[in-house]
Amino acid sequence: MLKFVVLSLLLIASILTFLNPPLAAVAWLALVALGLKKDRALTLKILTRVANAALVLLAVLVITVAMFGGTIAEIKKEMIISEVKRWVMSQPQLVQKLGPKVKEFIAQQAERLIKAEGLDRPWYENLPYYLSTVVTLELRSQVLRSNTGSQLVRDITMERLPRTVLLFTTATIISAVAGILLGLVAARKRGSFVDKFVTFAALISASFPMWWIGMIMIQIFSYGLNLFPSGGMTSVPPPKELLAYLSDLLYHMALPLTTIVLVSFGGWAYVTRSILVGATKEDYVLAAKARGLAERVILLRHVLRPSLPPILTMIALSLVASLTGAIITEIVFNWPGMGLLYWEAIETLDVPVILGLTYVFTLVFVIAMLILDILYIILDPRVRG
Amino acid sequence: MLEVRDLKVYYYTKKGVARAVDGVSFSLKRGESLGIAGESGCGKSTTGMAIMRLVERPGRIVGGEVLLDGTDVLKMDEESFRREVRWRRISMVFQGAMNSLTPVYTVYQHFKETLKAHGAYAGEEEAREITVKMLRMVSLPPEVADRYPHQLSGGQKQRVAIALALLLSPEYVIADEPTTALDVIVQAQIINLLKELQEKGMSIILISHDLGVISALSDKLLIMYAGKAVEYGSAEKVLRNPAHPYTKMLLEATPRVSGGELRWIPGSPPDLTNPPSGCRFHPRCPLAKEVCREEEPKMVEVENGHWAACHFT
User: Fold this and answer.
1) Chain A window 183-222: which residues touch B at a Cβ cutoff of 8 Å?
2) Same domain for A230 and A297?
3) Do B94 and A283 touch (CB under 8 A)?
4) Quick check: A134 pLDDT over 90?
């Protein structure tokens, strides 16, 4: 009963956080008060984890902002000056009108832009501004824009995120399911031909870089056999009709998806196999067999169930990692997701976008760790204490 | 009646074939108890595992019979052995039984799933009642049922393991080093518990390297060395009149409350993939002669109900 109340409160508070922050704060406080009353040690444990998570976030942000001081700020200043120069020089009338004052004008314009981006101040003076805007993703980009023309980092990110989810999260789910099943089969028939084959295939699969396999795939299936497009997410222009659009999308997804699955399922199979083989050697598995339990029951209840925490950790961390995409692979396949956005932001030194992305990546990672902590408490009685 | 005839368990390792159990025989009437003694690695535990058909690869039971009331259980198919014999008629308390409980389940859940596996589960209420009754039998309070293994002490876990072994009222219980890794007081408690069960008519096969523990509990005694039975007979006769030099030395190496000099047996047990020729004990035996190296001694009856395998009995 208490468990149910706590879990539903947790759910309500989580949803409210996005819809109505002030109300959510009340819900969170109620939850903490309830927790402190019923199970002080556990609540304090979770609160400590939350505090740790916040600290990690803060540290990552400070380090990122600090990194944009110094050399990078100098490079950025040079970039702005040459940009302004090129802009002025490309307008002959303007140059004619200014005459000898042209240098002065360029310097003035550059100065204005440098001030606007805070490049004339040391990084710690910029910190409060960045921190206050980054948390709500109200940051404005300096160079990049969303397709709709918005300069809000939030809009830019939210436009890219679904595309990465579509490709990488789907691929992660496919490779996780396939890999875990293969690992399970291999672990059950330890030492058999199937086991040796899975181990061999897993090692081969896991040892190639994703982008390299991607290039090979493009070479063979796109340039060689002319079966699939060599990159992009849709045809140009994209089909108008929904069904045609979806099939066009799938057609473009085929190569990158296969590539990611090919290089990732092996790791899953190998690690799952190792975890399960280790778990099968436990004394309590033999004891369960001695007690006359059926093999299926032993596998599910005494091998798989105690191995759930490490397997779930892998799943959660991979899902989170899939949200960030992969920079090189997205470049190879010209997939306009988070990885490519990161690359574009780095290339143009778009500080707010880099900062926003770093914040988002760290945030989802930290949240995943928190969820894992809570899952461990549910799954492993030893953690409950 | 449990009869083991010429049991052979071999381990097929990369180094060669290790003959962990090589032709062991004994018999046990219902209600009788047997002690199996010997140094580490002599095949005592493997014998117990083989009776439960729990020998795992690379080991294999390569020969012999385990007759339970005349039926060879080694010839039964795995599924009917699991349902009808394993744990129902012969159960086991493991060496290091403290690790025989799965960490993510409560004590009650262990009892419940064992009942379920043998079709003896008839609802939550009854299963709880049975669990509490079994826990009481090993002097544990009812609250233990809802504890997780990590919340129990070593002695408590050992008692739970024994209670689990008794759950289906088996005719034979194999206890493999049930007191090792426990402190002396808990050891004495567990021995007393086993004695009580014995008095209630349960047959216990006690496997231990500790002759003191064994002599307190067994009607019969089997001494093993390097996979072979070297002496076998009624406990009283074997202890009073040991016929094999290894048994004698083992007895001299057992500490006694009355004091006396403690001897040890020089050397160590042989490599089972390449055991010594003839009598396997000859390299360590003070009486060894030429014949011991050349010829393997047979089990001969030295007195009524007492056998030994030595050329000089």
Assistant:
1) 191
2) yes
3) yes
4) no
Q: Are residues B54 and A290, on separate chains, in Cβ contact within 8 Å? A: yes
Domain that holds residue A112: 74-121
Predicted confidence (pLDDT) per residue in B293-310, tens digit: 888 888 889 888 899 998
Which structure tokens are listed for B176?
A: 């493999």
Together in a domain, A303 and A212 = yes
A170 and A305: one domain?
A: yes
**Residue A245: inside a domain, yes or no?**
yes
Query: Residue for token digits 């008692």?
Result: B159
Q: List all residues 6 or more positions away from B178 whose beta carbon is below 8 Å from its beta carbon.
A: B93, B97, B158, B162, B190, B194, B206, B208
Contact criterion met (CB < 8 Å) for A293 and B103: no
Which tens digit of pLDDT belongs to each residue from A109-129? 888 888 877 777 777 777 787
ipTM entry: 0.90
B189 vs B182: CA distance, rounded Å: 10
User: Minimal Cα–Cα distance from A369 to chain B, Å?
Assistant: 21
For residues A354 and A348, give the distance between their C-alpha atoms in angstroms, rounded to a whole number.
Answer: 10
Q: Please give the structure tokens belonging to residue A113.
A: 């832009």
Give the helix ranges, DSSP H, for chain A. 2-19, 21-38, 40-67, 71-89, 92-98, 102-116, 123-135, 153-164, 170-188, 193-207, 210-217, 242-280, 283-290, 295-297, 305-323, 327-332, 338-347, 351-379, 381-384
- Give the SS3 label for residue B63: strand
Same domain flag for A103 and A172 = no
Between A and B, how many CB-CB pairs are < 8 A? Answer: 73
Cβ proximity of B78 and A289 under 8 Å: no
